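User: Now give one protein:

AI:
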Amino acid sequence: MNDKHNKKLKASLSLFLNYMKKAIYFSLLFTIILTVASACGKKLPNNGIPFYIVIDSTMVQADPVTQGSSSSKIDEIWVEMGSQNLGVYELPARIPVLAEPGNYTVSITAGIKNKGISGQRNRYPFYQTENYAVTLGDTQEIKLSPIFKYFDITKFIIKEGFETSNSFISNMTIISDVNVFEGSNSGLMTVAPLSAVETKTNSVLIPTGSVAYIELDYKSNIAFRVGYESVVSGLTQRTTEVTVNGKDTWSKMYIELTPDLSRSQSEVFSFFINTDNGDSTTTGQIYIDNFKVVYY
């Protein structure tokens, strides 16, 4: 009797579980159908016709006395409109916006390639986000030309434009010829064939936990390295941050220091540029301008 009873109980339980599975399945299917139907029947903003925000170029406005040069290399922008994230765009950009006509705030943040590497695209933490009040509906396109400024809290621990000074201890000559990037002067490292040369700044203090970057404008007919030196327990430690390929026209690079400095046991740093010229006939020439070390 017990075996028969158990078999009937198991059969009843199996039927019940199958019934519940089917009930849950059809309930979920019905919910999905309702959701899709509702979405299909929903009216798109502005009848599905997008507006466009057009940004052809950007620039930086720096205080020449306290912040140095306004040179920049902003490769892309992060764009938001109200609470809507519109995405990341390379410049020049034509950004579609699907929204009802009306008044909105558009926020634009500058983006850079850390160390010139395409795979390391960062929001530059020292440039303020630019906000614009825009009205969608008057025209199909709205053109904006962001002018970014440094945050007021940014510290310019090194700000070398070679106009009235030279922060590099040796092997950096001030030139004032056709190769100058801007202003009257730039810096030049000359590297004889089959020679190695290094230039270095005086030591500066950057507190532990700081967000920090190097900025520099450069052109060069040979590759060179940029890094920093610190002293921990009497021992000198050196870190090369990046090897910069030669370029025959002026360019700009941003070099993030934050992760490495956060691991350092020192707060005192000097910064170097060095190279090895392996060419037996050509003299290396590394032009530098607007070498900045910034932090907050």
